[in-house]
Design goal:
Blueprint (H helix, E strand, L loop, with lengths): L1 H10 L9 H18 L8 H16 L3 H4 L4 H6 L6 H26 L6 H7 L3 H8 L1 H23 L2 H14 L5 H12 L8 H30 L16 H6 L2 H11 L6 H4 L1 H12 L5 H14 L7 H21 L7 H13 L7 E2 L2 H11 L5 E2 L6 H6 L7 E5 L4 H6 L7 E7 L2 E6 L10
Parallel strand pairs: 1-2, 1-3
Antiparallel strand pairs: 3-5, 4-5
Helix pairs in contact: 2-6, 2-8, 3-20, 6-8, 6-9, 7-18, 8-17, 9-10, 9-17, 10-11, 10-12, 11-12, 11-16, 14-17, 14-18, 19-20
């Protein structure tokens, strides 16, 4: 009854161009239900989200906000400052997914081609949206910003208005704080501008500069502040958590992109170069080591394909697009597993709650390897971390400074010193998931081994 009234309210007073609103409203509700089922469950926490939360909790506990300003990607980290909780990552991912859905809805409504619905239906009903939200909400934000920049770019080429070119560059300037792919897209867009029309070289250069200028300002400002505060530069994609998937896997997972390419090749033109921009950008990202997930790559290629569809499509092209969309949906269901809560995560969550009984800076650890326990504890106040004054002294003589030591596998001085044997006056209390917890003799227990 409530849903029926909502649909009637949506239809009321709207123009005929909103004829697809019901479909997209249902798709969004489906996506939200999937996110609620697999992401809001507090037991599940991806490694990427755990690292985001760990950095934000450190900034809040120490007041060192530059620590997240120079961690990549900075914008998603700043958005977590009001609520550094696992549910906040899911909420931000769902909002980003709603933005993607809105852009796709606008594109299909503008074209008035019903067969295009096949792609968003199979995409949003596949495991990909859940994978994006649960694993890394920054990838959803990146997908939204890159699609928005592409939308402005196409309007610039169609309308020949400088505003849209600058808006595309400004969007990419924001996206650079979310994904390094924005830099590659800015370069490709700037070079591709001259292919539309017989522009003099000066006009081509001016148009490219208008688009690339906001991106250059964004990178320059961040690099300057990094040098000012840290005394050294910061790699643009330093700290990204995702190794890019093998390129052939990405290509095999996006038959829709190739279907639209065949339709475009039926009437090839020099402008077809722009359609290759996401493929070129992702290919370069693989070579440069810029991380992105398979889910983000599939979404990017799929929705670029939708917006790159010619205005007039033959019957065989429509049938090919629908068949490719269905094949892509089936393939994604067979190759992308839904996130699952493991028993280890439940135990990890209990450990995090137990650790909060420690006093301030009473647990010596390294957040580069123990970030999951920092995130599970929900506070960095109880930990003595490498950025803290006195950490080096505590590392050499833990018994003089702390009552607990948490050592996790990984490249750290703490691991090198105390993995094989506990510090003096400490003994091993428990070992779990590649980590060891040492307690000082006489200190109260925080957690018994499960």
């Amino acid at each position: 009854m409530v849903l029926h009234k909502l649909m009637r309210w949506i239809r009321k007073g709207h123009s005929p161009r909103h004829e697809y609103t019901d479909t997209f409203a249902l798709l969004f509700l489906t996506g939200m239900l999937g996110a609620a089922a697999y992401g809001i469950a507090p037991e599940h926490l991806s490694n990427t989200h755990a690292q985001y939360l760990s950095k934000v909790l450190q900034a809040l506990a120490r007041g060192r906000f530059e620590a997240i300003g120079f961690s990549y990607p900075p914008l998603p980290l700043f958005l977590l400052l009001p609520w550094p909780k696992p549910w906040a990552t899911v909420l931000l991912g769902a909002l980003g997914l709603a933005g993607v859905l809105y852009l796709v809805k606008e594109e299909i409504q503008k074209r008035k081609q019903r067969f295009l619905l096949a792609l968003p239906v199979t995409f949003f009903l596949s495991p990909i949206p859940v994978e994006l939200i649960v694993k890394d909400y920054a990838q959803v934000m990146a997908l939204f910003l890159l699609l928005l920049a592409w939308k402005f770019y196409i309007r610039w080429l169609e309308k020949r208005l400088i505003f849209f070119g600058f808006a595309s560059g400004l969007t990419l300037g924001v996206a650079i704080y979310v994904t390094p792919l924005a830099l590659l897209f800015a370069l490709i867009f700037a070079m591709g501008f001259g292919l539309f029309g017989k522009w003099p070289l000066a006009t081509w250069a001016t148009g490219g500069l208008i688009l690339f200028f906001p991106v250059a300002i964004g990178i320059g400002a961040w690099a300057y502040l990094a040098w000012l505060f840290k005394g050294s530069g910061v790699f643009l994609y330093d700290g990204l958590q995702h190794p890019a998937p093998p390129f052939w896997v990405l290509l095999a997972s996006t038959p829709v992109y190739w279907a639209v390419a065949l339709i475009i090749l039926a009437r090839p033109s020099v402008q077809s170069f722009v359609y290759l921009s996401p493929l070129v950008a992702l290919g370069l990202a693989n070579q440069l080591g810029m991380g992105y997930t398979l889910a983000a790559g599939v979404g990017l290629l799929g929705f670029f394909a939708l917006s790159g569809m010619p205005r007039r499509v033959p019957v065989w092209g429509k049938a090919l697009f629908v068949a490719a969309s269905l094949a892509q949906g089936v393939w994604l269901w067979r190759t992308v597993p839904l996130p699952q809560v493991t028993p280890e995560e439940t135990i990890e969550m209990a450990i995090g709650r137990a650790l909060t009984h420690a006093t301030a800076q009473d647990i010596l650890t390294d957040d580069s390897t123990a970030y999951r326990f920092v995130a599970r504890a929900g506070t960095a106040r109880i930990f003595l971390l490498p950025y803290d004054p006195g950490y080096s002294l505590a590392l050499s003589a833990p018994s003089l400074f702390v009552r607990y030591v948490l050592v996790c596998r990984g490249p750290s001085a703490l691991y090198s010193l105390y993995w094989e044997s506990p510090p003096k006056d400490f003994y091993a209390e428990w070992s779990f998931s590649g980590c060891k917890f040492y307690r000082k003799r006489g200190a109260p227990p925080l957690y018994a081994e499960p």
